[in-house]
Task: inverse folding
């Protein structure tokens, strides 16, 4: 029985992939969901998700994170979505679709958005156990499960998806091979030069690449499981798992079966309006469609345009899809690769401008017409300029093309700002958003931040490669409309933190008031500063104390008045006004005597104790007047401040290492202790964390730290810029196989360079992502000494190390400072009655009279959630 | 309750129920840092001294978090007005009016304060 009631016209969508979902949104935008019954047949077991970001599943995204379907939207628009129920037949005569479940739907309009399927070359044993494709979440789940008990994997196909798949296999801990029939990687997107640069970088990452060879047969064992593959050069490659990534083919079988025309190489033939050429009631969009220009587009952006075109046509608006740009920018295995416009120089008489540096895996080519028009290009290794260059394609850029491809710092390089772009330049190619629309979002729709503009225009919501340019445009537009985008530290200083650091260091200014009165904004001079710049300047002064002639003791003189409350009481403020106490336990190593002292203190003062995430012990619930008494006992027992309160070194975690562990190759505990003692007390823009693992098993999680060290049989590998917390980031390898002295020298330089150039409350991870040149620049500066400042960085650190003093032992020996540790200035022996506790699980917890907890609307609610 | 040892210096006094209540010596107050005082009726005041020497006193209780900690916040000047930022969640309070600068519906009590020999 037909499921339609015949009253309202019915639109049936077959396929709920990325393009299908965009089509539904376009229907809703045009009010068509109200006037139509909309039925969606979705083959996969889950509604539309972000296939472009599929690989991010292996970096921790869950299938739910990848979802693109807002069920509220589906419900609100009254869309009937049938998950796991594909269309099986189409009867165009009766205008009726039958689904696998047997459900029958009559349609007035049918839209096919069935996407593609991965092409698997017809080699013997291609369906053996251990052979996979890479298209859906289910594919990934299957690969992940199979890989968990194997060691080697091979990918057939060295194109865009093949490289992604190979990266994923490597990420799963497999030794990975790529087998590509063409003589270079990514044959479609890049030319020989670009392929060579890519090859070098990818091999350096430890992937084996076999180009110019075909796969002839999959070799299997007696159980039918993959054990290797035979290649066309006669060799055999041993592997436990094979992923086919040899291209995709349009899913047009349903269309073929009902007599719709398809192209010679597949694809449902459609006209400029995305209507099938045979039947005005049937549309085809996305990867299953053969567009009127004779192409099948395997990218999401053209599919989105087709979705909009089909929806507009159904609404009887004018729209056409006649072809699209194939520009792509990807980060493949961490290497930027981009190509845009006429990348291969197919235009008659065109010229190439090429910059190539094989040492650093850089390759940049621009294709220029006779009249100077930018026609296209390829960028490998550094695709920073992609957004701007792509937008200039088709016009004569305002500066010479050479200057656009030279790396920053190499003489003539120019950074063309996006402000130079015309209004019709496409900024976001995934969503086809022009510069004019983005400017309009700021000027007409009053968006003032990138997230607002993203929401308003959809720009930047798909692959994300345009977000950087988007940010620059928003800033430029705000500035142009008179909103001053002030880069200054705060209302008191127009300088950035980095500039203030340079001023303090160069002029040896060691008083905040001095700095404010001489370098503050006009109307802030002579005033009291604010809660933002005071701790920031206090931190700069503390980092440089011995060098600029300030006392290293942060409670000395004026410095005491600048510190955040935690630094002022050398403890962490808790919600009820009590404090927590964290003694330093270097490397997490502690004697039984040490444990007993901490236990006794906690018992005697009635403190709540907890093992922290930083391999040490936190005691909570100390009243301010108890802090000196507690610390007197801790200092007597040899403990020091753990700086859990400071923007300074927190902990250097360690695994047990070579001493006990059967896998360890170095003494990770000794190194962790050495490092923790070296850098303790170092004030920095944000907290610093570190860890040392005794081997590549990484039990200390060093790669999630600001600086992490992993032992190798030849010494130590140093990783930098890692972060746990809200926005986790894996650290990048800075240098390999260092001996002890080399390691410490590099860390000294790295930390001091970070302290010098970071923003306030900017962790090393955000800093590394922000600073121009990123990791490469940092490596140039701290390893190659490209700025000639390493000697200074080292001597600043030497001064810090030589002058370190434990601030708690300074404090308990200074009666004037101790007098501040009271609840009441007029009743020093009276505890604050608001600080109360109630029992919980054999210990205590704060008892706080209930009050509405409001949040400050500004940006500083999380400690350290600086503007990112 | 033991009172702070007397010195010869100027004293800080708060006006409580129409009489001046002596809190401490002026010189224990660092410009830019506060102290808390326990008032005869059990309430608490946070007292600050700015760079120019002006004194301010407001209630010590953070109305957002409930803990008595405003005296431990950092002070500053915002568009000419002196303020303290709560050390808990950083809301700022005008030291002259007690008005919260980040939420117009919230304010804290202000005490009149003076120095006396
Ligand atoms: C005590 C502890 C939790 C525990 O019970 O285990 C803790 C407690 C706090 N963490 Fe943490 N963090 C603790 C380990 C961690 C870890 C794990 C680690 O260090 O291995 C992380 C993730 C690793 C990282 O930082 O990259 C962590 C990520 C954060 C973050 C997020 C940082 C980020 O970059 O996103 C914050 C907020 C911030 O600093 O901006 C934070 C902030 C805080 C603050 C300071 C929040 C505050 O202002 O009150 C908490 C202080 C509690 C106190 O009064 O003592 N804590 N915090 C841990 C103390 C470790 C230590 O011995 O010093
Ligand atoms: C790993 C990976 C990375 C990629 N990276 C990029 C990138 O960086 N940039 C880019 O532009 N593109 C990228 N792509 C390509 C991009 O994902 C596709 O262009 C896009 O998903 C096409 O959308 P679509 O809706 O046409 O097809 P799909 O997203 O494939 O959706 C088609 C849906 O239709 C369903 N279907 C098929 N037949 C039926 C039926 N009979 N009944 C019901 N349902 C049916 C399928 O199960 C599928 O769910 C990538 C693809 C992959 C796999
Ligand atoms: S990281 Fe290596 S050496 Fe350290 S505990 Fe783990 S397995 Fe052992
Ligand atoms: S270009 Fe992909 S999201 Fe904008």
Result:
């Amino acid at each position: 029985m037909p499921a339609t009631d015949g009253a309202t016209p019915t639109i049936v969508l077959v396929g709920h992939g990325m393009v299908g979902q965009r089509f539904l949104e376009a229907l809703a935008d045009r009010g068509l969901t109200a006037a139509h019954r909309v039925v969606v047949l979705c083959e996969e077991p889950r509604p539309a998700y972000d296939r472009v970001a599929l690989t991010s599943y292996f970096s921790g995204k869950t299938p739910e994170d990848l979802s693109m379907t807002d069920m509220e939207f589906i419900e609100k628009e009254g869309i009937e979505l049938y998950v796991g129920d594909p269309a099986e037949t189409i009867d165009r005569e009766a205008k009726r679709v039958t689904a696998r479940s047997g459900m029958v739907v009559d349609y007035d309009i049918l839209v096919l958005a069935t996407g593609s399927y991965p092409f698997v070359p017809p080699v013997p044993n291609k369906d053996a156990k251990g052979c996979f494709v890479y298209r859906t979440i289910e594919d990934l789940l299957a690969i992940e499960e199979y890989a968990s008990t194997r060691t080697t994997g091979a990918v057939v196909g060295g194109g865009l998806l093949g490289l992604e798949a190979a990266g994923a296999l490597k990420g799963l801990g497999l030794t990975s091979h790529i087998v590509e029939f063409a003589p270079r990687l990514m044959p479609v997107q890049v030319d020989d030069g670009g392929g060579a640069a890519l090859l070098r970088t990818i091999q350096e990452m430890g992937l084996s690449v076999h180009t110019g060879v075909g796969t002839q047969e999959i070799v299997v064992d007696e159980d039918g499981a993959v054990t290797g593959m035979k290649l066309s050069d006669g060799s055999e490659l041993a592997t436990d798992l094979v992923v086919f990534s040899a291209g995709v083919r349009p899913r047009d079988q349903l269309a073929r079966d009902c007599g719709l025309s398809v192209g010679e190489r597949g694809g449902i033939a459609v006209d400029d309006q995305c209507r099938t050429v045979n039947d005005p009631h049937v549309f085809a969009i996305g990867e299953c469609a053969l567009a009127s220009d004779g192409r099948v587009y395997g990218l999401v952006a053209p599919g989105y345009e087709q979705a909009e075109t089909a929806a507009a046509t159904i609404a009887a608006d004018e729209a056409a899809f006649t072809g699209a740009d194939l520009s792509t920018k990807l980060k493949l295995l961490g290497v930027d690769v981009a190509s845009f416009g006429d990348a291969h120089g197919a235009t008659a008489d065109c010229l190439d401008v090429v910059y190539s540096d094989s040492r650093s895996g850089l390759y940049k080519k621009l294709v220029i017409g006779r009249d100077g028009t930018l026609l296209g290009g390829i960028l490998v290794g550094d695709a920073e300029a992609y957004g701007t260059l792509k937008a200039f394609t088709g016009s004569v850029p305002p500066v010479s093309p050479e200057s656009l491809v030279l790396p920053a710092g190499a003489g003539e390089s120019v950074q063309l700002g996006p402000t130079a772009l015309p209004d019709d330049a496409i900024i976001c190619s995934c969503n086809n958003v022009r510069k004019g629309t983005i400017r309009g979002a700021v000027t007409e729709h009053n968006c003032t931040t990138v997230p607002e503009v993203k929401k308003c225009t959809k720009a930047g919501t798909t692959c994300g490669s345009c977000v950087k340019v988007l940010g620059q445009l928003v800033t430029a537009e705000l500035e142009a409309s008179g909103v001053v985008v002030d880069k200054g530290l705060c209302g008191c200083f127009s300088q950035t933190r980095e500039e203030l650091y340079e001023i303090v260091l160069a002029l040896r200014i060691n008083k905040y008031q001095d700095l404010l009165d001489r370098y503050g904004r006009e109307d802030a001079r002579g005033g009291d500063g604010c809660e933002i710049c005071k701790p920031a300047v206090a931190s700069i002064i503390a980092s440089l104390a011995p060098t600029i002639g300030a006392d290293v003791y942060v409670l000395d003189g004026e410095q005491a008045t600048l510190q955040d409350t935690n630094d002022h009481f050398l403890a962490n403020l808790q919600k009820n006004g009590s404090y927590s106490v964290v003694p330093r336990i270097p490397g997490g190593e502690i004697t039984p005597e040490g444990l007993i002292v901490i236990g006794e203190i906690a018992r005697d003062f009635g403190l709540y104790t907890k093992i922290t995430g930083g391999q040490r012990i936190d005691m909570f619930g100390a009243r301010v007047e108890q802090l000196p008494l507690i610390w007197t006992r801790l200092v007597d027992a040899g403990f020091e401040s753990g700086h859990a309160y400071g923007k300074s070194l927190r902990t250097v975690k360690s695994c047990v290492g070579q001493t006990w562990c059967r896998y360890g190759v170095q003494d990770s505990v000794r190194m962790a202790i050495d490092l923790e003692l070296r850098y303790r007390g170092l004030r920095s823009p944000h907290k610093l964390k570190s860890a040392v693992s005794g081997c590549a098993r990484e039990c200390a999680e060093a790669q999630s730290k600001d600086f992490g060290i992993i032992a190798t049989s030849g010494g130590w590998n140093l990783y930098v810029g890692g972060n746990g917390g809200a926005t986790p980031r894996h650290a990048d390898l800075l240098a390999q196989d260092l001996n002890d002295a080399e390691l410490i020298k590099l860390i000294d330089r790295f930390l001091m360079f970070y302290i010098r150039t970071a923003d306030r409350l900017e962790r090393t991870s955000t800093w590394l992502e922000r600073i121009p040149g990123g990791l490469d620049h940092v490596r140039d500066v701290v390893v190659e000494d490209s700025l000639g400042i390493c000697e200074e960085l080292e001597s600043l650190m030497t001064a810090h190390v030589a002058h370190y003093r434990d601030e708690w032992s300074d404090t308990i020996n200074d009666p004037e400072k101790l007098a501040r540790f009271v609840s009441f200035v007029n009743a020093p022996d009276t505890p604050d009655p608001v600080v109360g506790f109630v029992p919980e699980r054999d210990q205590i917890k704060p008892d706080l009279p209930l009050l509405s907890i409001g949040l400050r609307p500004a940006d500083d609610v999380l400690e350290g959630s600086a503007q990112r | 309750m033991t009172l702070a040892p007397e010195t010869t210096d100027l004293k800080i006094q708060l006006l409580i129920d129409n009489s001046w209540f002596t809190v401490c010596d002026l010189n224990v107050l660092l410009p830019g840092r506060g102290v808390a005082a326990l008032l005869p009726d059990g309430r608490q005041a946070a007292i600050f001294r700015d760079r120019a020497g002006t004194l301010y006193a407001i209630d010590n209780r953070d109305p957002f978090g409930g803990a008595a900690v405003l005296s431990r916040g950092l002070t500053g000047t915002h568009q000419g007005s002196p303020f303290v930022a709560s050390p808990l969640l950083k809301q700022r309070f005008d030291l002259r009016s007690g008005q919260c600068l980040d939420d117009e519906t919230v304010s804290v009590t202000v005490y009149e304060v003076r120095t006396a020999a």
Chain B is about 0% helix and 40% strand. Residues A 14-20, 41-44, 51-52, 54-55, 86-87, 113-116, 134-135, 161, 164, 251, 254, 286-287, 298-301, 303, 328, 330, 463 surround flavin-adenine dinucleotide (ligand 2) (CB under 6 Å). Chain B touches chain A through 47 residues (CB under 8 Å). Confidence is low (pLDDT under 50) at residues 1-7 of chain B.
